[in-house]
Amino acid sequence: MKQQQYINTYIIGSICAGQNKAEAIISPYCNSDAMHEHLKQISKATMPGRFAVVVMDQAGWHKNKDIYDMPNVQPLFLPPASPELNPMEQVWRWLKDHFLSNRTYNTYQDIEKSSCKAWNFFAKTKELIQRICLPDWANLNG
């Protein structure tokens, strides 16, 4: 008999389709502390004089008010049960379909490495960012 275990890693990411920018952290946990680190990353990547509005669902780790302590970052919470309104849900599906689903790994480091490879491919492919995260129906520029 062989023991089966599950070890997860999480890609906590965001995109700015208007500027073709993508930021992410890889974390063994998906909680308020990890989200806070990602929000700090967004804050640092936001150009001076600009303000980042982070669209997200109402997951528990998103709702902790203590993580929004950066003056240039503010959450915009989507209604419950509305993943179709969140472009990042399409990104997660694409990453799983093309890189992450139905795989086995020998070590946690292999999982991290695969997650980083998947995210970096996505983040460097501007056409993907535009196609997945800026659908025609969301284009405000006409």
Could you describe the largest sheet, including whether it forms a barrel? Answer: 2 strands, antiparallel
Instruction: Provide the domain count.
Output: 1
Mean pLDDT: 91
Annotated CATH homologous superfamily = Ribonuclease H-like superfamily/Ribonuclease H
Number of helices: 4
What is the radius of gyration computed over CA atoms, rounded to a whole number of angstroms?
A: 16 Å
Determine the strand fraction and express it as a percent band.
15-25%
The total beta strand count reads: 4
Dominant shape: globular
Helix-residue proportion: 25-40%
Low-confidence sequence ranges: none
| Category by helix and strand content | alpha+beta
Give the distance, in angstroms, between the N- and C-terminal Cα atoms. 61 Å
The top-level CATH class is Alpha Beta
